[in-house]
Structures are given as structure tokens and as C-alpha cells.
Design brief:
The protein has helices spanning about 5-20, 25-40, 40-65, 65-85, 90-100, 105-110. By secondary structure, the chain is mainly α. It has one domain. It starts with a helix and ends in a 31-residue tail after the last helix.
Length: about 140
């Protein structure tokens, strides 16, 4: 596979897996389902279900800071997309469109500007919970 197509596959897999952990995960799942429906309609529902499983794995990985698990998922979907593209080179435009429509994975998004500033005022018996990222709250 030529380097440009390999890069496209890598970007697509990263964008899809990264998208699985965002509020736009349904867009990533839908886009991949449409891609598979175009060339393997009989497999599309299975791929969509597997993306749902991948989403659950990504969410757990991010909650535990397990970057390796997320990289492994990206690698798995890179291989799937490589095989799909090798068998169906006519889907290159759809794969490019998928990459353009999904937000970039954090490592492709570039450095973040600025920082986070959190300010809270509490009085009486109030409770304030603030986080710059993920947070799980259980009331005890």
C-alpha cells in the first residue's frame, strides 16, 4: 500500500477510535457503517456492533489512563481498513471524506492553547466539585 494511502488509513483509524470517546461517537460509528455497507453490506451491522464494543473499551481505557489499550484499538482498526482498502480501492474518496468529517485525534489536533482556570465559591453546606478532565462521583 503506498504511503499516502497508509497515512490515510492511519488517520481514519485514529479519528474513528478517538471519536468513539466523544459526544460525536455516533457520527464515527455511522460513517464506518456506511463505508462497510457500500462494499460489504452483509458485514455492516457486525462492524457497527464491533465499533460499539470498541467504544466501551476506549471509555474504560481513558478512565484508567491506559493509552496502550487505545493504541491497540487504533492498530486493530488500521488493519481492518487496510484490508478493506486493498480489496476495494474505489472507496478512497469515502475514506478521505470520513477523515475530513470526524474531528482529528488529539495527537493530530496540535498543541492546546492556554490552560484551564476553574473558580468556585461555596457557602453554607454547599458542595463544589470541579475537574479539568474526567470525573466519577459517588455519593457516600
Amino acid at each position: 500500500m503506498e504511503s499516502e494511502l497508509a497515512a490515510l488509513v492511519n488517520l481514519a483509524a485514529s479519528a474513528v477510535i478517538s471519536g468513539m470517546a466523544t459526544v460525536g461517537w455516533e457520527s464515527a460509528q455511522r460513517a464506518m457503517g456506511e463505508l462497510w455497507r457500500r462494499v460489504h453490506p452483509e458485514r455492516a451491522d457486525t462492524v457497527v456492533a464491533e465499533l460499539g464494543e470498541a467504544r466501551a473499551e476506549v471509555l474504560v481505557a481513558r478512565r484508567h489512563g491506559d493509552e496502550q489499550a487505545e493504541r491497540e484499538l487504533v492498530g486493530e482498526w488500521q488493519m481492518r481498513l487496510r484490508r478493506l482498502l486493498a480489496a476495494h480501492p474505489e472507496i478512497v474518496p469515502e475514506l478521505r471524506r470520513l477523515v475530513e468529517e470526524l474531528p482529528p485525534a488529539p495527537e493530530e489536533a496540535g498543541p492546546r492553547a492556554g490552560g484551564v482556570r476553574l473558580t468556585a465559591n461555596a457557602s453554607g453546606r454547599s458542595r463544589v466539585t470541579m475537574a479539568g478532565r474526567d470525573i466519577d462521583i459517588t455519593k457516600g
